[in-house]
Amino acid sequence: MAESAPFLDRLIHEPGRLAILTVLSSVASADFVFLQRATGLTKGNLSSHLAKLEEAGLVEIEKRFIRKKPNTNVALTALGGERIAHHWDQLERLKRLSEEVLRDE
Amino acid sequence: MKRGSLKSAGMSYLSLRGLLLIPAGAVFVASGLTNMDWVTSAHGWVFVGVVLVAALVYLRLARYYNEHYGRVSPSRRTQVRLSITAVVSSVLVVAGVQGDWSLDLPIDGTAAAFALLVLGNYAVGREFRTHQLVIWGFVLTAALLPLWGGVDPDVKINAGIVTMGVATMVTGVFDHLALRRRFGPAAGMDEADLCDG
């Protein structure tokens, strides 16, 4: 049976959100400052992407105070872990398919 | 978008917080120097003082990294790997010291064991950087040169510990520079950006 065509999750495919989820996929959790450093997103963009990801149930956000300063800790949920792994699989498939098409031409 | 670079960001950050290695290296150096035969018993207090200062400096530097570069908790798998590495490292270094005490080997077993475990740790974590290879490769080579036969074990072990300390501190400086290259300078963001939302 032929493989189904790769399907890209539009929520995750946005570069900022893809970067956030990929960074989170290899750690237990990371805070807002680190995610800014690792993704290069501005504070506003990062906040907005995190809100969307939390709404979709892909990340868990914990607001806390450390030394009287606000700190936002973010962790991937089980669903988020599955979705990001699946998304990268789909991207790999798409890449392989496009390479095959180019080879056949 | 580079998947590998994003995926390794957390681990790279944890391993490149090099300034934390400076107080750790200072403790090694103080330990090696104060263990030498020529040191009087009063120097024991110098070592205790160095450990206390190093602990305070370590905490201050950890806070600097947390505030300027953020906090990351390693995954459970990484925590297990780090714990196993710590146990294996301790066993290797103790074996190196024991070797230097009981066998008159022509090498410095203490420094060689430590250099090997550091290089092994970088290799397992797939986080090899040129400066780490150069510094620890140099320590390993120096320790394995057959110049140490007949040297008093006390001198040999403590020379190894001092070398480990100096190499640790130098590695820390280069690690920190690599961290700045990867994640930007500490003051590279707007003040508002450092206070998270």
List the main descriptive attributes of the protein structure presented here.
heterodimer; A: 105 residues; alpha+beta; Arc Repressor Mutant, subunit A; 5 helices; 20% strand; B: 197 residues; 9 helices
Structure at a glance:
Chain A is an alpha+beta fold and 105 residues long.
* CA(first)-CA(last) distance of chain A: 24 Å
Helix content of chain A: 55-70%
Structural category of chain B:
mainly alpha
Cα-based radius of gyration of chain B, to the nearest Å: 19 Å
- Number of E-type strands of chain B: 1
* CATH fold category name of chain A: Arc Repressor Mutant, subunit A
- Kindly state the number of beta strands of chain A: 3
Count of helix runs of chain B: 9
Flag low-confidence runs of chain A: none
What would the average pLDDT of chain A be, to the nearest integer?
88
Structure commentary:
The complex is a heterodimer of chains A (105) and B (197). Chain A is of the alpha+beta class and 105 residues long. Chain A has one domain (10-104): Winged helix-like DNA-binding domain superfamily/Winged helix DNA-binding domain (Arc Repressor Mutant, subunit A, Orthogonal Bundle), CATH 1.10.10.10. Helix content of chain A is 59%, strand content 20%. Chain A contains 5 helices and 3 strands, in the order ααβααββα. Chain A has helices spanning 10-13, 15-24, 32-39, 43-55, 78-104, and strands at residues 27-31, 59-66, 69-76. Chain A starts with 9 loop residues before the first helix and ends with a helix. The mean pLDDT of chain A is 88. The mean pLDDT of chain B is 84. Chain B is globular and about 55 Å long. Chain B has 197 residues and is mainly α. Chain B has one domain. The longest helix of chain B is centred in the last third of the chain and has 31 residues, at 153-183. The relative contact order of chain B is 0.18. Classes of the chains: A alpha+beta (105), B mainly alpha (197). Strand 1 (27-31) of chain A pairs antiparallel with strand 1 of chain B, so a sheet runs across the interface.
